[in-house]
Amino acid sequence: MRDFTVHCVRCRRSTDFPAYRCPNCGSPLVLDLVPASADDCRHTSGRGLWRYAGMLPRTRHAVTLGEGATPLLPLRLDGRDAHVKLESLNPSLSFKDRAMALAVSAALDRGLDGLVLASTGNAAVSAATYAAAAGLRCRIFCATGSNAGTKLDTARAHGARVELVDGHYSDAYAAATRAEGEGWLNVTTTYRNPLLTEAYRPIAAELVAELGAVPDVVVVPVGAGPLLRGIWLGFTDLRDAGLTTTVPRMVGVQADACAPLVRAWGAADWESSLREPVVVAPTAATAIADALRGYEVEGLLTLAAARDSGGALVAVDEPAIAEAGRELARRGLFVEPAAAAAVAALATSAVPARSRAVAVLTGHGAKEPSVLAGLIGGDPAEPSVFSVLSGGDPAGRSTLGALAREDRAGPSALSAHSGDYPAEPSALSAGRNV
Ligand SMILES: [Zn+2]
After folding, report:
1. 145-158 pLDDT, tens per residue?
2. What's the pLDDT tens digit per position in 117-142?
3. For labeling, which of 47, 94, 223, 279 is most exposed (least CB within 10 Å)?
4. For the chain, where do the domains classified as CATH 3.40.50.1100 start and end?
């Protein structure tokens, strides 16, 4: 495992973990790991995520529910060959489990009491799952404007406390921010906690081991985008350690309905673009419908990773997402719409037809009953089995569209946060225009 320091992406000020924003300038923080040796990047006798523990930041604990080491399957679609990485088969059915396994391990190291986060979706389920496994408490802040149904019921079933916050997602985000510290580790899965991104590095090693080669392109569904950046960092580890000679182009995919990173990618000034209001239309891909409201500059980390890899940000529309979901279902793969978006993106110009491409399937379809309805045209209004376990409201309807609605309406925290950052071009965006 690798020792690390924490520093600001803008002014480079160091600080101690856990920390969430630079105490000097308010910018996001990142971990700086000591370089990985070739041995660090080779698998160990550990299992799952911890099989590549040498690539991870150092922790003394190693909590696991069997996350990581997810299957990689070949997929032939529309006459082209690709592979899909089934992150949907992690213990709580999404890629977030990798981050939460690392987060609870770090929390135990430091004697923290529990996890706190803002989420209505995969992260809430994952945090509750891993807090339960580690014997920690879990507080989830959820906006009253959300309709999170089944996923929050699942979190309650694991013993998490779900606290409703008047307003929209940005209000829940702010509430989680106020609750962090004093024994609570904030694991809101944007870039707020700089540790979480690091948990995705081993995905690069898993892909190379399974493929026997470095992929040409890796397609990743992105909201804020820590998954894309984490996988990219893993590939740079392998290259810098001398185990590989190439790196893949990282392609981030968003839904047309909410695509602030795609908009910024095409703009001359990334940061200015990210700070412009985002109009969010209804989308099935709620897991990536993130307007970044209140933490706009975090998007720069994802854009920089795509740029450094020679990749791109692309958007796909709702019919393409739906069709990809149906095609995957016909092949026995039941995934959330955000994951289907990655497969839809295989048909875009960002992924050359003859390239060795991998699409990361981020989450399972089983957590959103209306996903099933979209696939078969049925009625999703069946009571949730989880509501029985948790004693919650059985009217657990879908989260589809809830995130989109909450992001579209109401005043945001953006204006309050904008002044926290210096006006000059960021170190992250520097180089974009050259
Ligand atoms: Zn700073």
Report:
1. 665 677 888 999 99
2. 998 789 999 999 999 999 999 999 99
3. 279
4. 72-94+197-370, 96-194+400-417
